[in-house]
Amino acid sequence: MSINTLGKKIGGQTYLHIDALSALDETRRNDWEQAIARAIDASRCCQFNVVRRQADGRIALLHYADFFDIPFPSLHELWRFDPGTGEVGYRTYAGSLNPPILHRKELLLPPEHPRREEYAALTAAAESIGLFDDTTRIGYQRQWLALVRERGYRIEGHQLVPLGNVEGEADAPDEAGQGGDQIQFGGQLHDHWAAARQRTAMVRYGFSAPIQSLARHGFLDGSQRLFDYGCGRGDDLRGLQENGIPAQGWDPYYAPDQPIEAADIVNLGFVINVIEDFDERIEALTRAWSLAERLLVVSVMIGERQHAGGGERFRDGLLTQRGTFQKYFTPAEIRQFLTSALDEEPITVAPGVLYVFRDKDAEQRFLLERSRGRRNRLRAPSAPRPREATATRRDRRAERYAEHSDALERLWAQWLTLGRQPHKEEVAELLPLTEAFGTLGKALRFIEQHQRDLLGDQQGDQQSEQLGEWQGDDYIDALLEQAAEARRADLEVYFALRQFERRRPYKHLESGLQRDIKAFFGDYPSAQQAGLERLRAIADPEAIAAACQEAAEHGLGWLEPAQSLQLHASLVDQLPALLRVYVGAGAMLYGEVQQADLIKIHIASGKLTLLIFDAFDGQALPRLRERVKIKLREQDIDTFDYVEPFTPPYLFWKSRYINEEHPDYPQQLAFDEQLAALGLFDITGYGPAPEVVDETLARHRWEVQGLSLRRSQNPPALDDPCGRFLRFRDLIECGETQAATGLANLPKEPQSWNALLELTEQVLDPVIDWFGMIRLTYGFCSPELAKQIPGRIDPKRDQHAAHERNRIGNLICPRLGAAVDFIIEDEDMREVAQWIVTETPFDRLYFFGKDKPLHVSHGPGHSRQIVLMQPGPSGRLVPKVVSSEAFVQST
């Protein structure tokens, strides 16, 4: 390997391991070392083992954990530095469940490295089974491991090992659909119009919004009975029963004979909004409340629409064209209605969905768990090598652990979730554990010691990366400390949001909450004070800015410094505690903010914006449907719908707002980079209007298909633009033979049209822009036209046939691409050809003379081949291939 080709090159980026710097020649080594020194000084990088340098001078210092021992090491930290602007950036992947990974690591190392051949053999094996064929699936750990398994292999050390005959896992069911039942109750509006309430009952194929909210918050585990008061057609009930959930229901129209009975949970789903009589509304609400032993769920239609569905005003709602009544509540109005009718404080959990708890212990547990981060996402160390058994006692301990491993591991997981040792009342498997170990305390000490022994003096696996270079006992201590800190932060969020909402104090505290308070704060006033301090901090722009910076460094959203942090709603639970309070305060006013797609945290203004898109997860360019601005200081909400006459805008750079853990992230990132690289329009800020985007993409024969950007497969009209100066007709009806014969000469393959456009955009447009208009003498050549030009052409090599195929389906010209011949009047065609060589990405160029037409092609080969056609002894033209340097310098 030449030292000038050392490193892994991707596009304009070069990757080098720090061990390879010494193998560079002195000039290059000094250049790299100076660039690295500047980057370290600017970014305050503490450790790295790989350097990434771009052609424009930008540099990144990367730390891959266990670079030499892991076959495809994952990225742990990254520091960026742009010497041109002085801009620095940092990103940690320590807590990521799907970090970027490194392939072909042998290319980063010096030629004499002792393990280079081992790594190269792994790369060759991966290539042989096609693992690198789809580049959108290889950059991140989750997609990479799934791809390896799809190919029928597993990774063992630095080898790919075929899988045996093992059963695959069943696919998880799709998440239930959105929506809510709307049911009917009898009654008269006036003498000439009766509310046909049964017409509002929807036929649904997924669970309603209130039922989905109960599932999201863990109420539908089968331990509690549910009664649907006003169940409509019963679709929710049928689905719940099929899932083993004890559920019954009653409806005055569809199920009038079913008994009305009390239950743990009562669902009043989209009932009171279709009752036109206020007293009947109160009666339905209070009747449902009387049946709820623990929780009442109330759902209504939210909005301020005056004439929905072409309806007319009636009382405090609308009469619709379908003969139904509809009352649209504002968020404040429905909260006030429930509070005044039930003398209870409702909790908004989603737009139009509110919980009213009769069981205050259950309410406290709900509010606490609702504020929780993602402790459940901590991963246990993956199979580190155990120490060798040195005594019989260790064997007995191992046997004891094996006998009770399931219960012990669940106990350890509960310890990490609570951030403190579980109390005996909180342990579901208390009896078998006490029978096996005597007391719960002994069981806790046993599992803790087992975890320490399991790690021994070896570095923990992936979790140790999250905690630094901890080892053995230090690792376990740090893990427990991290769990405690996370739980304390959850509690501070809980107490902060309670005080923001100004809820009445509970007469007594739920027992688990009492233990939390004692363990983390000492007493109740201290817990309240800690929450109050968190709450006050959301009014501090500097504190919010610092928390947003921390979130961005962990891959949680896109940071506009001093302005905002914007992120996908699924990432909210991973935010720093202060930002969870900020977002939680918005949820208190609006409902479950995760119902939105994107959340924008304004750093200085005390506002929270929710952005809702059409098909966010299924489209690379989703369109904004609704924007909700929550003003925390004023405790007010503004809603903006992007309906006529407004045109819903596209969301650009969607990959910025999700991260590598989103299943579509690799494809979305590839799409965003491809769209930006086209340079068709400016997509900074909000980008161009949708109609500009659509027209520009269509003009350049691009179309968006889901998460992909691909060339159009539809033929254009002959007079459609082909580049900035020409039409497709110009490249098809330009030859002497075509003009003489009048043949249509139309491409049949969509790729041929696209190849003609690419040739024009990449070569001909720049030439015309620099020299003026060209005169085409020969362009696209169909098989029918080629038959009329015998002896003077070479269709298998000249690329004039583009991507066309012959009668048996084979490519006429395997080189693909497209070609034209052209001349510019009053120009030296050598100078034109030399300019093409230095300024355009041509494929092949044939030069016939200063005053002769020039043949040029553009294609996937990018061979940049230059051929001089010179007269031979017999007078016939003889081809001679020359280098770019020689041709540019010729006269």
Automatic annotation (TrEMBL):
Q: Where is the composition biased (Basic and acidic residues)?
A: 385-401
Q: Where is this region: Disordered?
A: 375-401
GO molecular function annotations of the record: methyltransferase activity
What does the record list as GO biological process?
methylation
Q: Which UniProt keywords apply?
A: Methyltransferase, Transferase
- Alphabetical list of SUPFAM superfamilies matching this protein: Hedgehog/DD-peptidase
Question: Which InterPro entries has this protein been placed in?
Answer: CHP04096, Zn_M74/Hedgehog-like
Q: Which NCBIfam families match?
A: dnd_rel_methyl
Q: State the name under which the record lists this protein.
A: DNA phosphorothioation-associated putative methyltransferase
Species source reads Thiorhodovibrio frisius
Query: Where is the organism placed in the taxonomic lineage, from the top?
Result: Bacteria, Pseudomonadati, Pseudomonadota, Gammaproteobacteria, Chromatiales
